[in-house]
Amino acid sequence: MRDLVQEIVPHRRLDELELAPVPHRVVTELIEEQKRAELLRSYGIEPRNRLLLSGPPGNGKTSVAEAIASELMLPFYVIRYEGVVSSFLGETAARLDNAFEFARTRRCVLFFDELDTIAKERSDEHETGEIKRVVSTLLLQIDKLPPHVLLVGATNHSELLDRAAWRRFQIRAELEPPSRAQATRFLERLAARLGGDLGFAPRTLADKLAGASFSELEEFALDVRRRAVLELPDSNLRRIVQERLEHRRDQAAG
């Protein structure tokens, strides 16, 4: 089963993420519903268990899924497309069945990154009959999913998703690139976590890195601190930051 589903130990916490108000509210509500499922069931209501995250890459979709698993103290399983997708007719659908069968036997968070890989719009005339069978299998498996399995799907291209697949998710949240204020707060937390400043005030650095995704901000901060540690005891943080900013500009221009 390891070739179909990868278990990852979740480390991210919700309070470490910089989410806009609406995504933060819907994710928090989902976690509360799962934590207080018995209360809801005593009133004849099941907690919601299907969340679709969309938006540009690098802005926290995987981190949100991981944080949900962490907050609920559940195993975090990620579908491995290299194991699921096959060139042989009918085999992808069968492997997808097996992956869902595995998840149904335990309380867990099941994460589909890049969901549009196997949930493409079936009305697209360019798609093959095989992908349409895979989408039909996926929809059937989602419908059969028990409430104790929390399904999180992520896509950078929600417009490519099959409309029926899109509707299967009770909750949908768009994760946008960070605003200046969000980038500043995120860099403040990163600096504290990494045990030192980043050469410039977080707000100044946020301005210099305008347009960067959360993952790009994190990688930049890690790169600066890594270089600073390796250059001890004579490291010059401002010079390191300036060099990294110039490199970033050169890459963007190239």
TrEMBL record:
Q: Which InterPro entries match?
A: 26S_Proteasome_ATPase, AAA+_ATPase, ATPase_AAA_core, ATPase_AAA_CS, P-loop_NTPase
- Coiled-coil annotation reads none
Query: Which organism encodes this protein?
Result: Sediminivirga luteola
- Xref: Pfam families: AAA
Which family would the database say this protein is a member of?
Belongs to the AAA ATPase family.
Q: Which parts of the sequence belong to the AAA+ ATPase domain?
A: 47-179
Q: Which Gene3D superfamilies match?
A: P-loop containing nucleotide triphosphate hydrolases
Q: Keywords of this protein's UniProt record, alphabetized?
A: ATP-binding, Nucleotide-binding
Record protein name field? AAA+ ATPase domain-containing protein
> Where is the organism placed in the taxonomic lineage, from the top?
Bacteria, Bacillati, Actinomycetota, Actinomycetes, Micrococcales
Molecular function (GO) terms for this protein are: ATP binding; ATP hydrolysis activity
